[in-house]
Every structure is written in C-alpha cells, then in structure tokens.
Design brief:
alpha+beta, 5-stranded antiparallel sheet, 9 strands
C-alpha cells in the first residue's frame, strides 16, 4: 500500500555513534529496550524505561544508542490533523520539556504496536489512530489532556467528534458549546492552532480515508456517510487535507 498518511510508525535500533539532525515533522521516541542518550535543543536525558522524547518539528537533536536497543518512533506531519484535543498543547509543552514520563500501560501498548509493524513500518489510518492514542496518553501524563482545556472548547471538541458525520456547521458547534462563533474561532486558534471548520473537516476526512482504504463504497456514498451533502465539497475538503482526490487516494492505496 502506498504511504498516503501524515503519520508513520517505525521500529528503530540506533547505533552507538552519536548522530544529529532535525526534520520538518514532529517525532515521538518511545523506549522498548535499551537506552537512547539524547540532547534535544540543549536538554539532555536518557530515553529509557518510562521516559519518552517528544521532539517538535525543526528542533535539533542528537542521539546515541546502547548496544542492544529498540524504540518505537512516531513521525507526524508538522500540523498533524488527528492528534486529538491535547496534541497542539503537547507540542508547545515539548519546546520546554521534551522528555516526558508516561503511564506504564503505554509501554504495553507500544510493544503491541511494535509486534505488528512490518519492514515498511505502519502507516495509513491505523498509524494515525495509534499515534493519536499515544499523544493523548502523553498529554494525560503531563496534565495537558482535553480536560485541561477551557470547558467550552472541550465541549465543542466532544460535539464535533460525536456528530461530525451529521450535517453540522460551525454555527451549530458554537451553539452547543455555549459560545459565539468568533469566540469559538479564537479558542480553536489559541489552543489547537486550527479553526473549528478545519477540525471538523479533519474528523470527516479521517473516517472517509478508512472507508476508501477498506471498502468499495462509492465516493458519493462516502461523502454522505461522513457528513457532506455535496460530493464536490467533500472532494475539495479531502484534497485540502490529503493532497489527493478521493478517487486518487483509493487508487494509491491499492498500489502494493
């Protein structure tokens, strides 16, 4: 399958020689075995046991591994569409504190994912779902989860994620959150660095991608299933989020 996802998960082993670089995507490094000595923008720590590295896009970092090591590495687009409500806050927190402790249960989940990664890594909708779960778990561990967001914003997010497949509008979301549309826009931009309309579109496109990858459902029916009454509007939204039309995305997913 062609890699059309904005999230990719790989199982990596690092050499003992120190390397350094930066990249245009966000990255999370989660320990499975051994130690990875890291310097992220002048902050030093060992990624091991229950400590992860959360590296915002563009941050210089150096790293060197122990003799026997294995790490789950999640690469996400610079503005990842499916990071959950805590994602934008997490990246901002990582600028000051790139090394984060996480709940031990996350280690078991990471091992579960690692056991299912092939030589080509994990991508597509499954990688985005897994990546979103990791982001939410890390946000919880840092007290940055959705319940730390303003209550009205959290209500808006829950409403969107519950009813995205209905014909809801930004005005509907604002009403159900008890906000004016201008205040809703200000909260989304301030906390999540996106607009409520874009957040709604991303939830719809995420579901549409899964239907395109795993079913033969006609594109017109998928548009209706994810909340669009107009196939042209669906196609425009899908192209904006993925760079492809729905039909082109489906063809790319069928390439082995």
């Amino acid at each position: 399958m062609a890699d059309t996802s904005s999230t990719r998960i790989d199982l990596k082993r690092y050499p003992a020689e120190t390397q350094a670089h930066r990249h245009p995507h966000h990255q999370i490094v989660l320990p499975l075995e051994g130690v990875l000595e890291m310097d992220v923008a002048g902050r030093f720590a060992d990624v091991a046991a229950d400590r992860a590295a959360v590296i915002p896009a563009g941050q210089w970092h150096s790293f060197a591994g122990s003799d026997d090591n294995a790490f789950l590495v999640i690469d996400l687009a610079e503005s990842p569409p499916d990071t959950g409500a805590g994602g934008g806050v997490l990246w901002r927190a990582a600028l000051e504190h790139p090394f984060m402790r996480f709940d031990p249960s996350l280690g078991g989940f990471c091992q579960f994912i690692a056991n299912r990664i092939g030589h080509q890594g994990l991508h597509g909708v499954r990688s985005e779902v897994a990546g979103s779960m990791v982001l939410d778990a890390l946000a919880q561990s840092q007290n940055l989860a959705p319940n730390a967001l303003p209550p009205a914003l959290a209500r808006a997010i829950r409403f969107i994620e519950t009813y995205y497949d209905d014909a809801i509008t930004v005005a509907t979301v604002a009403h159900n959150a008890g906000l004016s549309e201008s205040r809703l826009h200000a909260l989304f931009h301030g906390w999540l660095d996106t607009s409520p309309g874009r957040y709604l579109a991303r939830q719809r496109v995420r579901r549409a991608r899964l239907l395109l990858e795993e079913t033969a459902t006609p594109v017109a029916d998928i548009a209706l299933a994810v909340g669009y009454s107009d196939q042209s509007a669906f196609t425009r939204a899908f192209r904006r989020e993925t760079g492809k039309t729905p039909a082109a995305y489906r063809r790319a997913c069928r390439v082995q």
